[in-house]
Design brief:
Blueprint: E1 3-13, E2 28-32, H1 38-49, H2 62-70, E3 75-82, E4 85-96, E5 99-107, H3 116-130, E6 135-141, H4 148-154, E7 158-168
Parallel strand pairs: 5-6
Antiparallel strand pairs: 1-6, 1-7, 2-3, 3-4, 4-5
C-alpha cells in the first residue's frame, strides 16, 4: 500500500457554544444500542467507514470488538434511523469526567446529502452533554467527507490543533467487505 500523509484536525466544543441543527423529517429516531452489540459497531464501522478509509479496526477480532463495547460506563453506541431504516451511527467515549469524545460518527452512503449528518451530530452532542460533558472532542482528517469539518464547525466545534501521520493507505477505498 502506498504511503499517504493523513492530516488529523482535533476539534472541541463547549456546550455553551453548541449550535444544534435538526432534520425537519418526522421519521428520524436516535436509539441507544443497549445491551452493547459488537456486531452492530463492526457493521457500521465497516460500512460507514468503507468510503473514508477507516482502516484501524478492520482487522479486529470478535474478542476485540466485544472488549471495546463492554464498558457501558465509558462507551455508548447510538443509531440514527430514518423511516425505520438504520441510517448512521455514533460511538461516544467518556474519556474522563467532563470529557466525551465522538469517536466515530457517520452515515451510510445512501443517506448522505439529505441533512441527516447535522442531525446525527446534534443528537450525538446532546447525548455527550447528557453524559456530563463539559467538553466534547472530535477528530476529522483529510480522508473524511469534504463537508465533515464544515458541519462540525457549524455546530460550534473549534480548532484545537493539527497533526500529520504518514500511513499506508490503499489506492482506493476498501469497501464494506473484503474483496468488495
Amino acid at each position: 500500500m502506498p504511503l499517504f500523509d493523513v492530516v488529523i484536525t482535533h476539534l472541541e466544543l463547549a456546550p455553551a457554544d453548541f449550535k444544534p441543527k435538526r432534520s425537519t423529517r418526522t421519521d428520524v429516531a436516535f436509539s441507544h444500542v443497549n445491551p452493547p452489540l459488537p456486531a452492530i459497531n463492526r457493521f457500521f464501522y465497516m460500512t460507514v467507514g468503507a468510503r473514508w478509509f477507516w482502516l484501524d479496526r478492520r482487522p479486529w477480532t470478535l474478542a476485540q470488538w466485544s472488549e471495546n463495547v463492554a464498558n457501558k460506563d465509558r462507551i455508548e453506541t447510538w443509531i440514527l434511523s430514518a423511516g425505520g431504516v438504520p441510517a448512521g451511527y455514533v460511538e461516544l467515549d467518556r474519556k474522563e469526567p467532563g470529557v466525551v469524545e465522538i469517536k466515530y460518527l457517520g452515515l451510510l452512503e445512501s443517506f448522505i446529502g439529505g441533512g441527516l449528518g447535522a442531525h446525527l451530530l446534534t443528537a450525538a452532542v446532546d447525548r455527550a452533554i447528557a453524559m456530563g460533558a463539559t467538553k466534547v472532542l472530535l477528530d476529522t482528517c483529510n480522508l473524511d467527507h469534504p463537508k465533515a469539518r464544515s458541519n462540525y464547525e457549524a455546530r460550534g466545534f473549534t480548532y484545537v490543533r493539527t497533526e500529520t501521520k504518514t500511513k499506508e493507505i490503499p489506492s482506493g477505498p476498501p469497501g464494506p467487505w473484503e474483496g468488495a
